[in-house]
Amino acid sequence: MKIINYTFTKILLFLGVLLLHSCRQAEWCSAMVRIKVDVTSNAEFRLSDFFENFRMISLECDVVMGQINRIRYANNRIYVSDRNTMFIFSDSGEFLSHFSKVGRGPGEYIRLQDFAINNDTIIILDWDGRKLLQYNYLGKFFSEHRLGYFARAISPIINQYFFLYAGNEYDGVNNTHRLRRLRNGQPGSLCLPIDRNKANYLHIQWQHHFFLHQDTVYFFEAFNDTIYKSVGGNKMKPAFFVDYKGKNVPASFFERNFADARDFFQEFHRRSSYAYGVSNFVINDHLLMFGSFYRGNRKLTLFNRKNENSHTFSTIRDDVFFNGLTIPIAEFSYFADNGYIFLPLDADMVVEWRGVYPLGKYFKEVVNAVRRDDNPVLLIFNLKP
Fold first, then answer.
1. N or C: which end of the chain has fewer CB within 10 A?
2. What 3-state class would DSSP assign to 248?
3. With contact defined as beta carbons under 8 Å apart, do 26 and 344 qualify?
4. Alpha-carbon distance 326 to 311, whole Å?
């Protein structure tokens, strides 16, 4: 998976928008923390300004990985998936196992959409097959649960509760956001109301929607200005509202009579002054981090939870791994789980950069051993406490 991912950027520019819930319900607004974001900022920050505990490991195994679509950390193991295969490594990068169960029979999935870890059990979400499947880390099949609906993402599991995100679909009867709360895989409640006017334009979403911090699961969307939280597996409640200082998409925009989704997006992009989005959300006791979009550019916001100050950046300077490397935020394509941030780098990118930038002294051995046809190298770090 390349850190420079122009396809991802173009998709987000095409999809644009979309505020599912804004701070218009007074009883919710009073309970939320307001994060003020200056998306016009073109500031730069160094990697070491906000991150620490830097590591670099090679994902060595005999199987070639496809494009990585999810990374999770649990039980001192790193779990990595592409659309077909699950790979398991120790936290030092040692290869432990892998399995692929692609198919349409019992114990098989059509596509590995997402997964969660419950103790030593891996729960795989199969979007196409509309089911959940359980395996151990060696790939032994335990059980499956038929959903009867399509789901895009699965949350971390707390007290045997978890959430399934099924998108924003309005069926003409139930105007409920398709965020389902389950316990032990059993059918649960639907959560979060949606605006009927927005439902036709909110069904295509980026796939990562949950982040776990201590016993709290946070829910966010690429096209939503509200971040929700569930404490201990309880129902989702609004936690943060992202204020783009007058640049949030107004509710009135969705009330217009668009011919179809294409007409909607064309009109949206014509009005390029809108800011939107919460992507790649990360939180600890001190800081909160997420991405946004404005005028075709991706931004990164760091919010101090103690003094409620925020800073927004458009570029990052690497002063840890490849000293002097500067990249736009659009190329800072990371995964986050259980307090860790994971940044995969294609091996050919590592080979190219090592000949141009001075290497951090702790990473020379790993970097110099990389060959162009290797699986990705994984950078790992945490938000500073």
1. C
2. coil
3. no
4. 18
Reported as a pLDDT band with limits 50, 70 and 90, residue 21 is very low
- CATH fold for the domain made of 6-383: Methylamine Dehydrogenase; Chain H (2.130.10)
Give the distance between the most distant pair of CA atoms in the chain: 61
CA dist., res. 323 & res. 359, Å (int) = 6
Report the b/e string of 290-301 with b at 16+ CB within 10 A: bbbbbeeebbbb
Closest to 179 (Cα-Cα) out of 21, 316, 334? 21
**Run of H or E including 283:** strand 275-283
Q: What is the pTM of this model?
A: 0.87
**Three-state DSSP state, 27:** helix
Average pLDDT over residues 165-194: 67
Going by C-alpha positions, the residue among 45, 51, 7 that lies closest to residue 286 is 51
R_g of the chain, CA atoms, integer Å:
21
Q: Taking the chain, what is the end-to-end CA distance rounded to the nearest angstrom? A: 29
d(CA 381, CA 32): 29
CB contact at 8 A, 329 and 298 = yes
Residues 6+ apart with CB under 8 A from 141: 101, 106, 107, 133, 134, 135
At residue 359, the 3 state secondary structure works out as strand
Whether residue 23 contacts residue 226, with contact meaning beta carbons closer than 8 Å, is answered with yes
Those residues with Cβ within 8 angstroms of residue 119's Cβ, 6 or more apart along the chain or in another chain: 75
Distance CA 15, CA 206 (A): 10
Measured CA to CA, the distance from residue 199 to residue 192 in angstroms comes to 13
DSSP annotation string for 340-363: EEEEEE-HHHHHHHHTTSPBPTTT
How far is Cα 242 from Cα 226, in angstroms, rounded to an integer? Answer: 6
Phi and psi angles of residue 246, each rounded to the nearest 5 degrees, phi first = 90, 0
Structure confidence by residue, pLDDT tens digits, 83-128: 899 999 998 889 999 999 999 999 999 999 999 999 989 999 999 9
| Number of alpha carbons in the 13 Å side-chain half-sphere of residue 210 | 29
